[in-house]
């Protein structure tokens, strides 16, 4: 049952949706309050009437950007039946990281982890939890694949999960810093190879 959002909730959602790409592109430190007021057309008072601080907006924007990725990944996984194909969704999705399905500014996990490493513990915690949840989801898929007889019984699930995440995030970083998307394509082929090697 969908209840109608209150005016305050609609305003909060509007601020998040309008500024999520700014935070994800410029980072927390690089985003000024004037960026938020300019993008939303709202006053400083309106923004701070809905959020306690710029940091609170940034945290909500991280959640919004991450949810956007997770939603598309889950939808694509539901369209395939084998555990191999479900895992392969990660490689396929990140191939399209410049397309509309991806948040403006790129991967929020990578962006936030790099920027907030030593400067903002709350944002760092968000990125950390996102990585740990991602790892957990991959481990669960691998274990389910082993149970179903689709993957080898001796698969090192955690090691494989961490390797997939490291390859994807590292590939994104290399492609971005060198301005060469083809680098990411090469790395994602390695991810696909790693997933193929799980097969029993």
UniProtKB/TrEMBL annotation:
<dbReference type="InterPro" id="IPR036271">
    <property type="entry name" value="Tet_transcr_reg_TetR-rel_C_sf"/>
</dbReference>
<keyword id="KW-0804">Transcription</keyword>
<dbReference type="Pfam" id="PF00440">
    <property type="entry name" value="TetR_N"/>
</dbReference>
<keyword id="KW-0805">Transcription regulation</keyword>
<dbReference type="InterPro" id="IPR001647">
    <property type="entry name" value="HTH_TetR"/>
</dbReference>
<protein>
    <submittedName>
        <fullName>TetR/AcrR family transcriptional regulator</fullName>
    </submittedName>
</protein>
<dbReference type="InterPro" id="IPR009057">
    <property type="entry name" value="Homeodomain-like_sf"/>
</dbReference>
<feature type="DNA-binding region" description="H-T-H motif">
    <location>
        <begin position="32"/>
        <end position="51"/>
    </location>
</feature>
<dbReference type="InterPro" id="IPR011075">
    <property type="entry name" value="TetR_C"/>
</dbReference>
<dbReference type="Pfam" id="PF16925">
    <property type="entry name" value="TetR_C_13"/>
</dbReference>
<keyword id="KW-0238">DNA-binding</keyword>
<feature type="domain" description="HTH tetR-type">
    <location>
        <begin position="9"/>
        <end position="69"/>
    </location>
</feature>
